[in-house]
Design brief:
Blueprint lengths: L1 H22 L1 H5 L2 H21 L2 H4 L3 H31 L3 H37 L12 H34 L5 H49 L14 H40 L5 H18 L3 H4 L4 H10 L12 H4 L7 H7 L2 H16 L3 H12 L20 H16 L10 H10 L7 H9 L1 H10 L2 H6 L1
Helix pairs in contact: 1-3, 1-6, 3-5, 5-6, 6-8, 7-8, 8-9, 10-12, 10-17, 10-19, 10-20, 12-16, 15-16, 16-17, 17-18
GO molecular function, one term: phosphoric diester hydrolase activity
Organism: Pseudoteredinibacter isoporae
Protein name: Response regulator RpfG family c-di-GMP phosphodiesterase
């Protein structure tokens, strides 16, 4: 920023010297040294004043630094213009008209440089806040952008008209002096060249400000769009950097508040959903020989399998973070259909007869039908779809010998294939009134025997890779610990 300002000084000092000789007959009459020495000295004073008063900007709140930067720069140029006018008046008895032209010239240069430096500071602040994750708190009624546009346009128009008028006035004075000594065509060329030069300089500054302002607007809009795009993908942690004390700052603030409200609403809905799942799963549990620990263990087995399985490229696309979380949340509903099975069958301590087993085999469909009713009433979503898949397909087998539909291989939903292994493993290691608990190694041996028959070989590979985690989950959520909790 300091280098940018120094460049402005060098260019502005040269332009002011050219401006002076083109708009003011008095300045045009001075020698090059008499004109440039006070100009260079004055610009050095501006730079010194900016250094001395930099705390006026740097110590202010971030949201006020842009405004203070503009105020400091334009004030220094105005004071310098006044100082130059007084200097020429005292030393050379310059006319008041000449002093006014000096002040106007410095004011115009100061305005454009102040605008450029303010926009540069605005950009630096935005980049700083974006990288740090911090925010400013914009005023409730900031200076409107529409006023900034209209005031800038008006000042530019007045500057162009005013300077051109002064150039023409000076040239008319010059024509009176040269009279017939200079051909008319040559005089016209001189005048047009001067006017073109002055207009071109002002237009270069105007375009520089326009491009800088457009760049800042692009940056603010890009930040807003990036945050909204993240929210559209489900990322409710996204934020827009609140970095400007204007309508864009307020827009960013309100966007962040909206995202926060959505995140809170989503959290509440998630809690409600989880409570409903646990309530339904617990309802099924009260009518079954299985325990609350079974629900916690199987859902953690499913998650462990899914996280391991997605390391396999053949399954990675199906198991993104959202899907893994939905599998984890939906797993407790795998046996919800058992609420429709008579107690005489569900609670029978011994082996079921063929007729009883046929009735028991209906529980996956009962659960899926209940969840389908919920889908029709509430609308389809990923959670209900996966919950229905798990309920309906967790007793299907890889070789097609399972139930209720006799699906085989990849026709069985991946959610059902994961749940099948988790459910069987937990049934094997858990004690029931009709059987003792097996060790992990014995359960593992039975599961490996079902590789390619009962279970998906890919899921078996994932199980072998994370079997230590299965053992840990079984210990963490053992029936005794769950009952004690």
């Amino acid at each position: 920023m300091t280098q940018s300002y120094r460049q402005h000084y060098l260019v502005a000092a040269a332009l002011f010297g050219l401006y002076g000789v083109q708009v003011c007959p008095f300045l045009d009459s001075l020698s090059l040294g008499a004109l440039l020495i006070p100009i260079m000295f004055s610009f050095a004073l501006v730079g010194g004043g900016r250094f001395l008063f930099r705390h006026f900007v740097d110590k202010a709140e971030l949201k006020y630094q842009v405004k203070r930067q503009f105020a400091l720069d334009i004030t220094l140029f105005l004071l310098t213009g006044l100082a130059l006018a007084i200097y020429f008046r005292l030393l050379y008895q310059s006319p008041l008209e000449s002093g006014l032209k000096v002040v106007i010239g410095m004011a115009i240069l100061g305005f454009f440089i102040a605008c450029d430096q303010a926009l540069l500071r605005e950009r630096k602040i935005a980049e700083q806040l974006a990288s740090s994750g911090e925010h400013i708190t914009p005023d409730c009624d900031p200076y409107p952008l529409t006023h900034k546009f209209s005031h800038f346009a008006c000042i530019c128009a007045v500057a162009v008209i005013g300077v051109v008028f002064m150039v023409i006035s000076k040239d008319l004075h010059w024509l009176q002096q040269v009279g017939d000594k200079l051909p008319l065509a040559t005089a016209q060329r001189y005048i047009l060249t001067e006017v073109s030069f002055v207009v071109a300089v002002i237009m270069v500054y105007v375009l520089r400000i326009i491009f800088a302002y457009a760049g800042n607007l692009r940056m603010f809009i890009a930040m807003e769009q990036a945050a909204l795009a993240s929210v559209a993908k489900g990322d409710l942690q996204a934020e827009v950097p609140v970095s400007s004390n204007d309508e864009f700052g307020l827009m960013a603030l309100h966007t962040n508040q909206t995202i926060a409200a959505l995140a809170e609403r989503s959290r509440e809905l998630s809690i409600t959903r989880d409570a409903s799942i646990l309530g339904l799963a617990s309802l099924a549990e009260t009518r079954d020989n299985e325990t609350g620990g079974h629900i916690l263990r199987t859902q953690n087995y499913v998650k462990a399998l899914a996280l391991e399985l997605r390391k396999n490229k053949a399954y990675a696309a199906q198991l993104d973070d959202e899907t893994v979380e939905l599998l984890y949340k939906s797993a407790p509903l795998h046996d919800i259909g058992k609420v429709g099975i008579p107690d005489s069958i569900l609670l029978k301590p011994g082996k079921l007869s063929d007729e009883e087993f046929e009735i028991m085999k209906g529980h996956p469909q009962i659960g899926a039908d209940a969840l389908e009713v919920a889908e029709r009433q509430l609308g389809s979503n990923s959670f209900l779809r996966i919950a229905k898949e798990i309920s309906l397909s967790h007793h299907e087998k890889w070789d097609g010998s399972g139930y209720p539909a006799g699906l085989a291989g990849n026709d069985i939903p991946l959610s059902g294939r994961l749940m099948a292994l988790a459910d069987v493993y937990d049934a094997l290691i858990s004690a029931r009134v009709y059987k003792p608990a097996m060790s992990h190694d014995d359960a593992k041996a039975i599961i490996l025997k079902g590789n390619g028959q009962h279970f998906d070989p890919g899921v078996i590979d994932a199980f072998l890779a994370c079997e230590a985690e299965f053992v840990s989950i079984a210990q963490q959520f053992s029936d005794k610990k769950v009952e004690a909790a």
